[in-house]
Design goal:
The radius of gyration is 19 Å and the shape is globular. The protein has helices at about 5-10, 15-35, 45-55, 70-85, 105-110, 115-125, 130-160, 165-170, 180-195, 205-210, 220-245, 260-290, 295-305, 305-320. Helix 2 (about 15-35) crosses helix 11, helix 4 packs parallel to helix 11 (about 220-245) and helix 9 (about 180-195) runs antiparallel to helix 11. The chain is built from 14 helices and no strands. The chain is an all-alpha fold. The chain has one domain (about 15-320).
Amino acid sequence: MQVLTPLFQIFVFPGFLFLIAFGLFASWVDRKLVAKMQNRVGPPLIQPFADLIKLLAKEDIIPESANRAMFAVAPLVAFAGVVASAIYVPMWSAQAANSFQGDLIVVIYLLTLPAFALFLGGWYSTNPFATIGATRVLSQLFGYEVPFFLACLGPALAGGSWSISEITAAQADGGWFIAAAPLSFIVAMIALIGKLERVPFDIPQAKTEIVSGPEVEYTGKRLALWRLSFLAETIVASALIAALFLGGPHFWGIPFGDMPAWLAGLVGLIVLAVKILLIVFFLSLTQAALARIRIDQMVEWCLLWLGIPALVNLGIIIFTMS
């Protein structure tokens, strides 16, 4: 039984199967919202699942000039990093499937693996468009990752812990850390757009410029794995922001302590899912309303207009705690 529990957490919930299912559903919600904002009908509910099945049925092709090992392993590393990070993020209660002091740093690190893997996959495919996209991935990474890390420090300081579970538990009484660190929350939400490479920070993909960038040579199952990696990262990163700033699975007025454990877990999961979908709504809104910016504008804007507010909020938290 001790062996089965970690396997269940990795492959079923909150890992592999849960991230795929909820990621595909969130993808449909995202596409439907963007369509409505642009006065279109949008896809049916089964469309993301049909797209995945279509990619899985297609032939896998590796370019002759590519480094076969790096090209093949890169999407696996990206997806594995996201699945591993999900184990440390509270999904149904304040306690994650696994937690320890410092797991916040580990999760932030694991969520950077898709970007590094995308760089390696694009670079070693030897396609000129993929190479340009790969360099943009790294350039953009340095732009958003520092502000995102600084933003996550706000709740850690306010909660007095480096454990995501303990930070979430500190908000169980309704005192969400979005009130203590509002600037950090705004910075984290904007940095999330860059982390997921969405408009206006979709510069590495830029289909109208470099034909999907690092993914241009990927087909079939490996391309499906890239798609799943970013869908799963959307869920995990949104759940992380919800856990740090919005109380995670907790909500005002819901007496979790008076419920049976299974019911409290189910209600907590539903509450977290609603919060994740609200973050997806924000991502959809920015995609429908904004246009892509240049890579130099993105890096300068993130470091200046995201980094400084995050530092200011950290200073305010430290001052009020002293």
